[in-house]
Write a structure and sequence with these properties.
The protein has 136 residues and is of the alpha+beta class. The chain has four helices and four strands; from the N terminus they run H-H-H-H-E-E-E-E. Helix 1 runs antiparallel to helix 2.
């Protein structure tokens, strides 16, 4: 995919996430699609657009998430990340909880390492979008 197409694709995904009629669950799924694209492209700035400023997960906030993702992206040559078996729940407090299976292949100097598991990610509404607030 060319850089121009990648930018256009990202803009389409972000615009869909901001569609007024979209449900919180639909917006959350779009945010996770942007996250997947960012991981596969090793695009730190795009990845960070999916993280809420008030992130409070296992790290200590967005700065820690950025540092961890930066180390990952710099330490490998390629990422192939995908998800399936996704369940999406709209919580009473306005957040969305997503439970999904993931497979991530990391490649460095021709050596591949496969990771797989389940992840539970929480997203919260902010400025018409759903951003990741916990679970990474």
């Amino acid at each position: 995919m060319t850089a121009g197409r990648a930018v256009a694709f990202t803009l389409v995904l972000l615009s869909l996430a901001c569609v007024p009629g979209a449900t919180p669950a639909e917006k959350a799924v779009e945010t996770l699609a942007v996250r997947e694209k960012a991981l596969n492209a090793r695009d730190l700035d795009l990845y960070m657009t999916t993280i809420a400023p008030g992130y409070g997960g296992s790290a200590t906030g967005p700065a820690a998430i950025r540092a961890r993702a930066s180390r990952l992206f710099e330490g490998i040559d390629a990422i192939r990340y995908s998800t399936d078996e996704r369940s999406v729940y709209e919580e009473p407090d306005g957040r969305v909880r997503v439970i999904q299976r993931f497979v991530m292949e990391l490649e460095r100097e021709g050596v591949r390492r496969n990771l797989a598991g389940r992840e539970e990610i929480f997203l919260t509404p902010l400025d018409g979008r759903m951003l990741i607030v916990d679970g990474l």
